[in-house]
Amino acid sequence: MASKDSFSLDELDGGSRDVAEFDSHAAKDLEAIYDIPVQISAVLGKATMQVSQLLKLGRGAVVELDRKVGEAIDIYVNNRLVARGEVVVVEDRLGVTMTEIIKSDRS
């Protein structure tokens, strides 16, 4: 069951909407934000180590993270947690699929 601070994408009404579904005035208003750059980060996990340990790492070293295989990863937009998701492989490349959007309490 989802917590009160998050909800699943399955709970959204109608899924995603195409810009064509909006009237032309609303679509024009949205076009103003299309070129704004945002930084998106997918955090697989975290690890803490001393600088001396970090300097000893070599090619092929394995760093143990605080998450287990199959656990949801955190997705940040402009350093703000906005969703959780899963790592997927698409044509030999890694990707992320969002499984849960995190509601924020902006005041």
UniProtKB/TrEMBL annotation:
* Chief place where the protein resides: membrane
Where does it live in the cell?
A: Cell membrane; Bacterial flagellum basal body
Q: Flagellar motor switch protein FliN-like C-terminal domain spans which residues?
A: 32-102
Q: Which UniProt keywords apply?
A: Bacterial flagellum, Cell membrane, Cell projection, Chemotaxis, Cilium, Flagellar rotation, Flagellum, Membrane
Presence of keyword Membrane: yes
Database matches in InterPro entries: FliN, FliN-like_C, FliN/MopA/SpaO, FliN_T3SS_HrcQb, SpoA-like_sf
Is-annotated flag, keyword Metal-binding?
no
Membrane protein topology class: Peripheral membrane protein
Q: Which family does it belong to?
A: Belongs to the FliN/MopA/SpaO family.
NCBIfam families noted in UniProt = fliN
Q: What does this protein do?
A: FliN is one of three proteins (FliG, FliN, FliM) that form the rotor-mounted switch complex (C ring), located at the base of the basal body. This complex interacts with the CheY and CheZ chemotaxis proteins, in addition to contacting components of the motor that determine the direction of flagellar rotation.
Under which name does UniProt file this protein? Answer: Flagellar motor switch protein FliN
